[in-house]
Write a structure and sequence with these properties.
Layout (H helix, E strand, L loop, with lengths): L1 E5 L7 H18 L3 E5 L6 H10 L10 E4 L7 E4 L4
Parallel strand pairs: 1-2
Antiparallel strand pairs: 2-4, 3-4
């Protein structure tokens, strides 16, 4: 299963961004999704950096296996999960 989160609509609302990211990670854990696609967009790169900082936080990092930056599209990230 693959989940998708597009952050274009809430790019300038910090609390909504954190809430949306936490929600999609929680949903991925609940449904045991294999991949979450997060689209921060290309822009200046600040939103992508914010997403990466969120994913690197101590309470989120243990929940997923790895983060992949899309080599063909700068404005897209994949969060991979490994379930036993």
């Amino acid at each position: 299963m693959k989940l998708k989160l597009d952050l274009h609509d809430i790019y300038n609302r910090g609390q909504d961004i954190d809430r949306a990211l936490r929600g999609i990670i929680d949903e991925a854990v609940r449904t045991r999704a294999s991949v979450v696609e997060i689209i921060p967009g290309k822009g200046s790169g600040q939103l992508k950096k914010r997403v990466l900082r969120f994913l690197d936080s101590k309470e989120i990092k243990p929940l997923y296996h790895r983060v992949e930056k899309d080599s063909k599209n700068f404005g897209r990230l994949f969060v991979h999960f490994r379930w036993k």
